[in-house]
Amino acid sequence: MKYLLFQPEELEELMQFLEANLDENYNQQVFLKIQSQWPDGFAIAWRGGKMVGVGCGALLPGDKLRVLVLVLAPGMQGHGHGRKLLEMLVAAGHKRGCLRVTLEARVDSEAVDFYRHLGFSSVDLLPCYYQDGGDAVVMERPI
Ligand SMILES: CC(C)(COP(=O)(O)OP(=O)(O)OC[C@H]1O[C@@H](n2cnc3c(N)ncnc32)[C@H](O)[C@@H]1OP(=O)(O)O)[C@@H](O)C(=O)NCCC(=O)NCCS
Known about the structure:
Blueprint: E1 2-5, H1 11-21, H2 28-37, E2 42-47, E3 50-60, E4 64-72, H3 81-95, E5 100-106, H4 110-117, E6 121-126, E7 136-142
Parallel strand pairs: 4-5
Antiparallel strand pairs: 1-2, 2-3, 3-4, 5-7, 6-7
The structure holds coenzyme A.
Coenzyme A is lined by residues 70-72, 77-83, 105, 109-111, 113-114, 117.
């Protein structure tokens, strides 16, 4: 597995990957903006020349790192790659002075247990946060 920073020319593959692996619809321009604002906070996992994982974050006011996307292709889950991508974002955030990392996850998803395992606590609930009406839990952890 190779972990590399996202490059704008990979946008089409990124959009195909996210469409195949996440429920939400994303505007592709948003990812170019995120990349241009903070290239170090946008990591891709590659295997055999294929995109198999994405970790993408943004710097928030108040010394916070927000994880916007963290997803592995189904066949690649459970092998430490999610942890690795998250650690890359956290290390990049740490370099920029972030003191906390925050994210949203579906209340009823396994991702919540994953983040709890990695030291995150629930700090808020966002009703109807997702496009299908699902609720999100806001989770945080010190860096
Ligand atoms: C959630 C997700 C990103 C986790 O990535 P992953 O590569 O499968 O997880 P890892 O293998 O890196 O797991 C890291 C650690 O968390 C633990 N873990 C993983 N999933 C877990 C779960 N559901 N419950 C509890 N612990 C879990 C692992 O056992 C491992 O522990 P260890 O390092 O102490 O041995 C990935 O499964 C995924 O993409 N899921 C679908 C999309 C999704 O839900 N994304 C999050 C949206 S916010």
